[in-house]
């Protein structure tokens, strides 16, 4: 996540930097540093930001489950953690999903695939 993505999401959530710091459990200075590009955005902060945005958007417009959107075969679907935990709108958040028929080894690898997916389009 880039600093301008962070700021864009914060504004879509309708939060001030101070309110965002409270939600993220970090300092106001950290939030300001993320937005200015002085500090890299940690993985846990990026995930939390995307989760909050996803939940906010879900309140406004319900989203289809990933297995419906991607038309996953029954066998693949039943082995996927997103289906197991009934979190088809949060498939990008859950490690171990079978997108592109393989699991990813780390967050950066996973999120780069997810950002291209129609399920996650519009979140960032």
TrEMBL record:
InterPro entries in the record: Cro/C1-type_HTH, Lambda_DNA-bd_dom_sf, Two-CW_dom
**Which superkingdom does the taxonomy of this entry point to?**
Bacteria
> HTH cro/C1-type domain spans which residues?
6-37
Name the Gene Ontology molecular function terms of this record.
DNA binding
Q: Which SUPFAM superfamilies match?
A: lambda repressor-like DNA-binding domains (SSF47413)
- This protein's name: Helix-turn-helix
Species per Swiss-Prot/TrEMBL record: Desulfopila aestuarii DSM 18488
What lineage is this protein's organism placed in?
Bacteria, Pseudomonadati, Thermodesulfobacteriota, Desulfobulbia, Desulfobulbales
